[in-house]
Amino acid sequence: MSESQQVILNHEAGSGVPLTLRNVSIVYRTRKGEVQAVRDVSLDLHAGESIALIGESGSGKTTLGLGIVRLLVKSAEVTAGEITYRRDGKEIGVLALNKNALREFRWKECSMVFQSALNAFNPVIRIWDQMRDTAQSHGWKDKKAIRQRSLELLRFVQLDADRVIDAYPHELSGGMRQRVLIALSLLLDPQVLILDEPTTALDILTQRTIIDLLRKLKDEQHFTMIFISHDLAIAAELADRIATMYAGRIVELGSSDDIFYRPRHPYTLGLIRAVPKVVGDFQELFSIPGSPPDLIDLPSGCKFHPRCPYATDRCREEEPDLETVGPDHMAACWHWQDVEKELQTKPLHSVA
Ligand code: SF4
Questions:
Q1: C-alpha separations of 293 from 51, 103, 303 in Å
Q2: Which residue from 11, 75, 217, 266 has the least number of CB within 10 angstroms?
Q3: What whole-number distance in Å separates Cα of residue 83 and Cα of residue 22?
Q4: How far is ligand 1, taken at its centre, from the CA of residue 351, in Å?
């Protein structure tokens, strides 16, 4: 058994649904009005599965992640829906948890790794003290055992554990801090990990190290993961399923292969076409015209209609729900068959 596999993480692949979202809506209350950041999102996250939420900034991805672990800012509120978490046959209504139960839930069941590793640490507290504080505040008393566990996890994320554990955050590079943050999030052995833009702001080689690490978590430790990413290549590499979000809603949901090779929503198609290619003939870079809608004053009908090349009068009047467009593949579009037809004549290339 490799050193990394010695880390005791109590996971089983492929059984049950640890997290269910039903019709979840989240708004931010601002002076200008209610920002409808997440609208009527339903999702089942299966044990051992990794799912990527993709979409432009402001599509609701991060708000949804924060809503799941109930770390929304004060001005935000889950206005509708249910979030249910399951472990050992027990069901937990996440939205009904009290303060203490919520703290336990956030570290022991469902942990979130935030976008900026730089800001996540207290700069004047050594890594060891941050890890020890976290463990002790959850009832661990044995300092020696905490240190042992912390060293194991730092080794698991491929750091020089003996050096890093006594370092201050500013002594570590961005990539090292990101790995420490992942180790910290694993300290209490959560079942579900939510990673918000895990490789943003890292150089390309460091990105590769983080991707390899996440792959290891997925393949060897069978973590159930939600990736929030605007980087489609990372989503393609790490996710079993992908949910495209637009204006707070999931507009397409399918396997990675379905999304990248058989997209049925014009927005997903636009995102894929906008990925620059590094091989083949030079082509002008495609971009989706216009910009994401004002979430305080959403357009009528399908929220993508002002930017959509397939839009018709029906699109301007009625918002479509997700419908089945293939096995385990759903899209919310009145004209998904037109996308299918277009792809038969103009096939996509891989983005991975
Ligand atoms: Fe475009 Fe209409 Fe489909 Fe919306 S419903 S994505 S506007 S074709």
A1: 25, 35, 7
A2: 75
A3: 6
A4: 23
